[in-house]
Amino acid sequence: MVTSLVRLFGSLGILAGTLLAGSGALAQSEPDRSPRAVVELFTSQGCSSCPPADANLAELARRPDVIALTLPVDYWDYLGWKDTLAHASFSARQRGYSHARGDRQVFTPQAVINGRISVIGSDRAQIEQALHQSALPLRVSLAENGAQASIMIEGEPTRDPADLYVLPVVKARTVEIGRGENRGRTITYANVVLAVTRIGEFTGGSSRVDVPLLVARGSGDGFVVLVQGRRGAKPGSILGAAISSGM
Asked: Strand 186-193 to strand 234-243: parallel, antiparallel, or no bridges (unpaired)?
């Protein structure tokens, strides 16, 4: 079951969720869009090797079986151009993956598939091979009803608890880069993540949680839901995912 979200958002005066056993019928239910993989691209506007990976990600974002996400990092800002989309928390997430894998490899462009497999983001053959090896064991579906989103999760009980996240996403963002290694280039980034927010815990079975769209979507065009294991305090394998309508 997913833990109550009231405690998490109570200080904001928001009733963040109502937990129900099962996944009863909902109005405005979305069609089944269950993905086989989540691809997270850690990229930077200040990295000259990144534009081919950004183009790869944009192509992957059009595939119905893949949730493709852009997470711009901030550690190249010192090269003369401050990435306009970067967040320090994305850099920390990338480092967390490297520690969880045990390889300590942090670079751009780096694609991480289902929280487990690290490949060069511009190497489409490596990405396709990783996708071929990937599957998500949990089925996650979404429905939007008025001012809230309902998240339904179906799966066997898990050995260890997993975290439930919402990620507000901008479908496309075009940036004119004025300085640094990509000076003079105009690049369009697909499915740009605005934040990664933990909203609860999942321990298995069939569960439902209702989240205010204000929390799930934020200022994005839509949002993604991730059910993700953890390795200590580090992010682990992604177990299930869903993307909202319009994305």
From this structure: unpaired
Closest Cα partner for 110 from 85, 93, 134?
93
The set of residues, in sequence order, having a beta carbon less than 8 Å from that of 34 and lying 6+ positions away, is: 136, 139, 140, 141, 242
pLDDT in tens, 57-101: 999 999 999 999 999 999 999 989 999 999 999 999 999 999 999
Other Cβ atoms closer than 10 A to 87: 17
22 DSSP 8-state letter: S
Here the tokens at position 133 are: 């090896």
pLDDT tens sequence across 7-46:
333 333 333 333 333 333 333 434 445 799 999 999 999 9
Which residues make beta-bridge pairs with 144? 149
Max CA distance (Å), the chain = 54
Residues 57 and 191 sit within 8 Å (Cβ to Cβ): yes
CA atoms within 13 A on the CB side of 164: 26
Q: Which residues of 11-34 are buried (b: 16+ CB within 10 A; e: fewer)?
A: eeeeebbeebeebeebeeeeeebe
Nearest to 97 by CA among 55, 48, 39, 138: 39
Q: How far apart are CA 201 and CA 190, in angstroms?
A: 28
The pair of three-digit structure tokens given for residue 13, joined into one six-digit string = 């005066």
Q: Do 169 and 191 touch, CB atoms closer than 8 A? A: yes
Cis peptide before 109 (omega within 30 of 0): yes
Distance of alpha carbon 141 from alpha carbon 143, whole angstroms: 7
| pTM of structure | 0.86
